Amino acid sequence: MRIPIIAGNWKMHKTIDEAVQFVREIKDKVQGTDVEVVICAPFTLLLPLKEAAAGTNIKLGAQNMHWENQGAFTGEISPLMLKDIGIDYCIIGHSERRQYFGETDETVNKKIHSALNHGIKPIFCVGETLEERESGKTEEIVKNQIQKGLVNVTDEDVTKIVIAYEPVWAIGTGRTATPEQANEVIYQIRETIKELYGEGIYTEIRIQYGGSVKGSNAEEIMNQEDIDGALVGGASLLPDEFVQIVNF
Ligand SMILES: O=C(CO)COP(=O)(O)O
User: Fold this and answer.
1) Which residues are annotated as a binding site for substrate?
2) Which ligand 1 atom is nearest residue 91's CA?
3) ipTM score of the complex?
4) Distances (CA, A) of 43 to 58, 103, 151, 218, 238
């Protein structure tokens, strides 16, 4: 049984007051669901959010981390520091980090190993650009990202990873992949996991869709057979929208 996981990715948004207020507004409305609820917030918000979310079913995630525990890496945050706060998840390899901050499949792989070694569950993002989709390369690109991101990840560890399929052309554009398009790529991702890890594991791993998910389209996306959750950007900043998505 794969437990659905709805994760908000707040990207670079919200002050401490706004973040704490958000949790106060949603906490009772996301209780009692079978869905795992996660907020991936900027680093400055994680500790106040941890306190605000104590005693609720809301889990926390970071949006990035370095793979080293410490060192001369100005501006970076380490897995030890995230563990110190007690966060559960970390988004790794988001397309915005690949596009603007030079993340590669190799650094993504290092971060995945480091997160797993520290008991932080990676939300591992993959997805093709519009140009790649239009030239018929979606399957090849996504398969390659999955294979390279998971190099040397063991059978035991891979089931702790949540994969997020986020077509770059659907992020923040209002242009959602159709539920069928999303399910098709997610099905292929599951097939790649089967090739890499064999029977059994591929049915256990959770795969989310991300890209312009909102209250009004969450249900049809979540109803797809292979889609186990959503990674939500813009709509996760709005309490009512986020609650509606969690309660799809
Ligand atoms: O990038 C995303 C989540 O990680 C998706 O963003 P939007 O939901 O704003 O399209």
Assistant:
1) 9-11, 172, 212, 233-234
2) 4
3) 0.99
4) 17, 19, 28, 27, 19
